[in-house]
Amino acid sequence: MGDPAGIGPEVILRALLQSSAVRDSCIPVVIGDRVVMEEAVRLPGLSAKLNIIRTPEEAMATAGSIDMIDLALLNSFEKKRPTAEGGSASAAYIRKAVELAVNKQVDAVVTAPISKEALKMAGLHWPGHTEMLAELTG
Fold first, then answer.
1. What's the whole-model pTM score?
2. According to the model, what pLDDT value does residue 21 have?
3. Backbone angles phi and psi of 119, in degrees to 5
4. How far apart are CA 138 and CA 135, in angstroms?
5. How far apart are CA 5 and CA 42, in angstroms?
6. What is the strand order of the sheet 65-70 is part of?
7. Neighbours of 74 (CB within 10 A)
C-alpha cells in the first residue's frame, strides 16, 4: 500500500477500479491497513467494497471490490506528511509482501510510493525500497 499518508492508496484504487488490464492478468491483493483504504474509497470518483482476507488464497478478484490483507497496525493516521508510524507501517507492508512471495503464496510484489523520511523517522536503516527488498530477499 505504500506510505499511509501518501498517494499510494489512491493510486492502487484507481488502478484496480478503473482498468480491467490488472484484473485480466492477475488477482491483486493489497497489503496494508483497512482504516487507510476506507479513507481512500471515500475520495471523489472512487467507490469500492473492501474484502478483508487473511491469505491470498481467499482473494476473489470481484469487480468493484478490493481484496486486502489488513495488518491492522494503525488506528488513525495523518495525511500528507511523513510520520514514524507511517514509516513503520509501510515497512511492515513490504515485509509481509516479501514473506508471501518468498513462501510462493504470491507470484509478484508491486510497491506503492513510500516516504524515505518516514522510514528514517521510524528508526529503520533502509534508505528506500531497493535496499529493503534486497536485504529481505537475500
1. 0.93
2. 80
3. -60, -45
4. 5
5. 15
6. 30-32, 65-70, 49-53
7. 18
